[in-house]
Amino acid sequence: MTNTFTLADDAPCTVELVRKIRSKITTLLKKQGELQLQIDDLLLAVSEHLANLSEHGDGLICDLYWHSDSRTFECRDNGNSIEALLKGASLLDDSEQTFELQESGMGLSLITTLFPDYRYLAADDRQPRNRLLIRLPKPRHKLAVVDDDPVFLELLKAYLEADYDLVTYGSATEALAQNLLAQVSLVIADMHMPGFNGIELRKHLLDDDQTANTPFIFLTGDESATKRQSASELQIDDYLLKPINKARLIDTIERVLLRSQRIKSRLNAQIDSRINRSLWPKGPWQIGPVQADYAYVVAERGGGDFLFHHAYEDKQRFVLGDVMGHGEQAKFFAFSMSGFITGLSAASTEATECSAFLNRLSGLLCHSELMMNTLVTLQVIDIYEDGTVEICSAGHPPPFLLAKNAAATEVDVNGPLPGMSEDAHYQSVRLQLSKDQSLMFYTDGLVEALLMKDCHTALAETLNALQQQSTQVLNAGQLATELAFENRLLDDDVSVFSVFFSCQNDDSENIS
């Protein structure tokens, strides 16, 4: 999924910009599942900063970005006088200066309070604009601690509050009455409590589908083998003896949480592997003189990549999509988006141009209550019987044109994210593939998997190197084999779709 979203490009710093950006940030971050409290804090900080730029710099323009991977907001402005915004300077190295934001009438002290990890980088020879970077704090695991000893609860608070969000209960009955245990990442409970004890609490949680798989740690001062056996029969994750050592406690918590996440990841990967097959039509396809094929690898957490295919009388249409996010939610929206596209295609009695198709799809997404809760990038690829390929893009990374004896070149095709505006207008690009040429389409999981800094340049270099090693034009299957992504732990799905001259005659039978 796209990692960086442009919120404003060379926009004048005005009050109107503040209003528009607040709306864009709210929509975008809600779709990405950010907490409302953090969204509100960011809106306040961004509003203050833009208002200050507007007030203290006539004619200022700025670029605004949201980097989803690092959860960072970035503002770049062309202000010439940064002294009014800054006080003091400390050299980090020979090439970069970081300044402390002024706490006077500029309102920037608010950013320091809300986001201590902010950075303000003054313009220099490498970066002609001042940069403010605000990173949202990392979400923390929520733990529930149940113990009838109030002094011990206070001790655990002192040990854990710096690293985790805690909810504490003085009894198992109180914990169950609050009905919050389904919302925590881990339950830590004393084994011996008056009345409804820790063992009964664990049994109750095992009987509830919402909490049966929640990791559980027992605390006890009883070292007897009988008690240990009783605990082990309740599928607990660990067993700690009192008095508790802080280092051992945190080590145990981290180990249990990591083990739980790995189990979930393996199960999700197995489920996603089966589900993913239904999101990818059966290929390859021979279309006149060219062939289309794909390869994909499901991320450990599962992602939202999909491929749609529809055969028309004079062409075959493919839609490569990438839904924002990971896990079940991304897969759900991938199914929904694929169904949305299927319905739109079935409703059309005749084939439309890919740009008209994308215009129509984007307009419908604007009014879909379901799809307005997510973000997706799309690439529509129409392949004609004469080998012509028409491409239309909605926020998706541009494909590469490969040739055996030439450098990989990026195809200049782009467009806004679908569903963000009712009047979005997309334009297509047409190419005629010749012998020893191929088109390589991909989702940005490919870039992330290659750990590239300058993604497009480095990706082009990688494709060039692989093409030089190959005796034939590079296709999706070869790329996946050469890079061996199935042997890596991926953060996002990796999907590649290729269209290449297959040296077969124009009368080849279509495989659809």
TrEMBL record:
Keywords: Hydrolase, Kinase, Phosphoprotein, Transferase
Domain Response regulatory: 142-257
CDD domains cross-referenced by the UniProt entry: REC
InterPro entries reported in the protein's UniProt record: Bact_Sigma-Reg, CheY-like_superfamily, HATPase_C_sf, HATPase_dom, PPM-type-like_dom_sf, PPM-type_phosphatase-like_dom, Sig_transdc_resp-reg_receiver
Gene Ontology molecular functions: kinase activity; phosphatase activity
PANTHER family in the record: STAGE II SPORULATION PROTEIN E, STAGE II SPORULATION PROTEIN E-RELATED
Record's protein name: Serine/threonine-protein kinase RsbW/sigma-B regulation protein RsbU (Phosphoserine phosphatase)
Source species of the chain: Reinekea marinisedimentorum
